[in-house]
Amino acid sequence: MERLNGAPPKEETGSLAVGVVARLEQEILNGIRKPGDRLDERQLAEQFNISRTPVREALQRLAASGLVVSRGRQGLQVSQLSLADLLDAFSVVAELEALACQQAARRMQSEQRARMQAAQAACAKAAEEEDVEAFYAANLVFHEAIALASHNAILQEELRRLTLKVSPYRRTTTYQPGRMHSSIPEHENVMNAIIRGDGATAAQQMRAHVTLLGEGLSDLLHFLRTSGSGSLIKDMG
C-alpha cells in the first residue's frame, strides 16, 4: 500500500497500536508501570521503536478503557483509583469471579482443570519459598484458568478489563505478611468446590477470597502507608 508523507498505512498503524496496547497492559499487569506513572508519547515511541502515530492511537484506546487518564499539564498517566473506587472495583471483581466459578463448576474441561491445579501447585511452591513474584504470576494463571473454564467470553472480557485496573493493588496485597500462605487454603477451597461441581460453594469461597472488607481492607491500607506504596491510591493523603 502506498504511503503518504512517509506515514504508515492506516491498517499498519492500527496493528501497531494494538501491539502497543497489549505491551502496556502487560507492563501494568506485571507492575512495571504503576498507577500515577506518566506515559510520554515520544518516550514510548522510542522504546517500542515505532512512530508516534500508533503510540498516540494506543494511548487513546487505553484512555477510552479508563486504564489511562489525562492529568492536564502532567500529561497522560496510568490511572489511580480512589479508596472508594478501589472498594467498588474489588466488589465487582469478586462478583464476576464468583460467577466464573459457578459456570466453571458446570463447564470446566479436563485441560482447564489441569491448568488450574498446576497453577495452584505453583502458588503453593512459591509461598513455601517466599517467592512473591512467582506467587503473583501463578495466582494470575489460577484466576485466569477459572475464567476460561466459564466459557463465557463476555465475562472473560469484563474480568480482564477490571483485572488490569486492580492488578497493582492485588500485587501489593501479595507482599502483605502471611498473605501468600493464607491464599493457599482459600484457593484449595475454591478449586475443590469447582472440581466436585459445587458452583454455589465455589462462588461463595471465591467471593470471600477476593473481596476487600473488614480486616483485609484495614491491613491493606496500613501496608500501603507503611511500605511507601500509598501513591497507588489517588488522593489518599
Average pLDDT for all residues: 86
CATH architecture classification of the largest domain: Up-down Bundle
Helix-strand pattern: HEHHEEHHHHHHH
CATH fold assignment of the largest domain: Four Helix Bundle (Hemerythrin (Met), subunit A)
Radius of gyration: 19 Å
Task: Name the beta content range.
Answer: under 5%
How many strands, which pairing sense, and closed or not: the largest β-sheet? 3 strands, antiparallel
The total count of strands amounts to 3
Could you give the order of strands across the largest sheet?
1-3-2
Query: Can you count the helices?
Result: 10
Helix percentage? over 70%
Secondary structure category: mainly alpha
Identify the CATH class of the largest domain. Mainly Alpha
| Fourth-tier CATH superfamily name of the largest domain | GntR ligand-binding domain-like
Q: Total domains, how many?
A: 2
Q: Compute the separation of the termini in Å.
A: 53 Å
Low-confidence stretches: 1-6
Morphology call: globular
What can you tell me about this protein's structure?
With 237 residues, this protein is mainly alpha-helical. It folds into two domains: 10-78, Orthogonal Bundle (Arc Repressor Mutant, subunit A), CATH 1.10.10.10; 83-232, Four Helix Bundle (Hemerythrin (Met), subunit A) (Up-down Bundle), CATH 1.20.120.530. It has ten helices and three strands; from the N terminus they run αβααββααααααα. The protein has helices at 10-29, 41-48, 52-65, 83-107, 110-128, 132-149, 153-174, 179-195, 199-210, 215-226; strands at residues 38-39, 68-70, 76-78. Strands 1-3-2 form a three-stranded antiparallel sheet. β2 and β3 form a beta hairpin. α1 (10-29) crosses α3 (52-65) and α8 runs antiparallel to α9. The chain is globular, with a radius of gyration of 19 Å. The model is unreliable at 1-6 (pLDDT under 50).
